[in-house]
């Protein structure tokens, strides 16, 4: 199968490749804005609960695994680097580098989920899962449980986004392997990267709010 | 023609190093007894990390202003959501 030199797949509603790319850029940011607001509701709920129960949130946050959470933050930040480099390689037409970097991103995403799963197991072992086996000594038990409702909901929804991102990156690897991209057409990789980075941004805020409330 | 300028790989690596340094700072500062400043530092560092990711990895640095407005829109409405909600809870 001979590679098509810099072919642009132009949908018929667009005048030219430039216009098509602008539409894709604007479209992904509109979509990401809806994602920001989707997670935003959870952040708003978190803010209200933390203001109402500051002591319980301080106690509860100390029960999370700060070492695993910090390592996972590093893993995710690194995956954003490999993703940014993968998009760059695709734009430059470096197909093999692009596939290698996308695969690294995929692997780091899976490592993130594995560590997160380990944390969930430890939380289960320590009786911190609300509605399943939650128990906490002391009068603040109910308020500590509210923190863990927030913790599981926020990290759970984030993990679902990670799974979606991993699937997307997998599709990008397959498309790159079939030579679907060129220096003129790389929109799917670009947009998958945008999604991946936004999921990273969400975690950047989750990390201090869940793991670092009161460590001193 | 190329509207997505290709940044140097070095730039991305430097941004990544900056992100890891900020991660170390936020983790380290959390163990210093600074009272309410702990939370403020954590949030400020998170905002700095998010801006680094969005400006460099998500190319806002070299994007058309229309894209920057679209990117700001989500955060603008988020600020209204959180701001108005808290104006109730903080004033009770």
Task: Write a compact overview of the structure shown.
The complex is a heterodimer of chains A (216) and B (92). By secondary structure, chain A is mainly α.
Tally of discrete structural domains of chain B: 2
Q: What is the H/E order of chain B?
A: HHH
How much is the average pLDDT of chain A?
A: 93
Query: In CATH, what is the homologous superfamily of chain A?
Result: Cytochrome c oxidase, subunit III, four-helix bundle
Given as residue ranges, the uncertain stretches of chain B (5+ residues, pLDDT < 50) are none
**Which chains make the largest contact?**
A-B, 52 and 50 residues
Compute the separation of the termini of chain A in Å. 61 Å
Model regions low in confidence, pLDDT < 50 over at least 5 residues of chain A: none
Enumerate how many helices of chain A there are, as a single number.
Answer: 6
Largest sheet of chain B: none
Helix-strand layout with pairing:
The complex is a heterodimer of chains A (216) and B (92).
Chain A: H1 17-52, H2 54-61, H3 66-91, H4 95-125, H5 141-177, H6 187-211
Helix pairs in contact in A: 1-5, 1-6, 2-5, 3-4, 3-6, 4-5, 5-6
Chain B: H1 9-30, H2 36-57, H3 65-91
Helix pairs in contact in B: 1-2
What does this entry look like structurally?
The complex is a heterodimer of chains A (216) and B (92). The N and C termini of chain A lie far apart (61 Å). By secondary structure, chain A is mainly alpha-helical. The mean pLDDT of chain A is 93. Chain A has one domain: Four Helix Bundle (Hemerythrin (Met), subunit A) (Up-down Bundle), CATH 1.20.120.80. Chain A is built from 6 helices and no strands. By secondary structure, chain B is mostly helical. Chain B has 2 domains: 1-58; 64-92. Helix content of chain B is 77%, strand content 0%. Chain B has helices spanning 9-30, 36-57, 65-91. The termini of chain B are far apart. The model of chain B has no long low-confidence stretch (mean pLDDT 91). The interface between A and B is large, with 52 and 50 residues.
């Amino acid at each position: 199968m001979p590679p098509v030199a810099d072919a642009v797949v132009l949908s018929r509603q667009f005048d030219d490749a430039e216009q098509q790319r602008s539409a894709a850029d604007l479209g992904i940011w509109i979509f990401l804005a809806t994602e920001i607001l989707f997670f935003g509701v959870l952040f708003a709920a978190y803010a209200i609960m933390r203001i109402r129960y500051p002591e319980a949130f301080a106690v509860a946050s100390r029960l999370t695994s700060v070492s695993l959470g910090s390592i996972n933050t590093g893993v995710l930040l690194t995956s954003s680097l490999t993703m940014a480099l993968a998009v760059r390689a695709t734009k430059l037409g470096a197909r093999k580098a692009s596939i290698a970097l996308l695969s690294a991103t995929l692997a780091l995403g899976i490592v993130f989920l594995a560590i997160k799963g380990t944390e969930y197991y430890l939380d289960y072992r320590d009786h911190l899962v609300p509605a399943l086996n939650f128990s906490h000594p002391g009068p603040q038990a109910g308020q500590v449980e509210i923190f863990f409702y927030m913790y599981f909901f926020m990290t759970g929804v984030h993990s679902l986004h990670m799974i979606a991102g991993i699937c997307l990156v997998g599709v990008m690897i397959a498309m790159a392997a079939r030579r679907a991209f060129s220096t003129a057409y790389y929109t799917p990789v670009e947009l998958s990267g945008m999604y991946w980075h936004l999921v990273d941004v969400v975690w950047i805020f989750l990390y201090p709010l869940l793991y670092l409330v009161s460590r001193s | 023609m190329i509207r997505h300028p290709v940044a140097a790989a070095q730039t991305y690596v430097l941004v990544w190093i900056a992100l890891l340094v900020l991660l170390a700072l936020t983790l380290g500062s959390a163990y210093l007894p600074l009272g309410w400043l702990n939370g403020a530092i954590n949030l400020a560092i998170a905002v700095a990390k998010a801006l680094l990711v969005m400006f460099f990895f998500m190319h806002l640095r070299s994007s058309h202003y229309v894209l920057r407005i679209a990117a700001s829109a989500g955060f603008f409405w988020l600020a209204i959501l959180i701001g108005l909600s808290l104006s109730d809870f903080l004033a009770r």
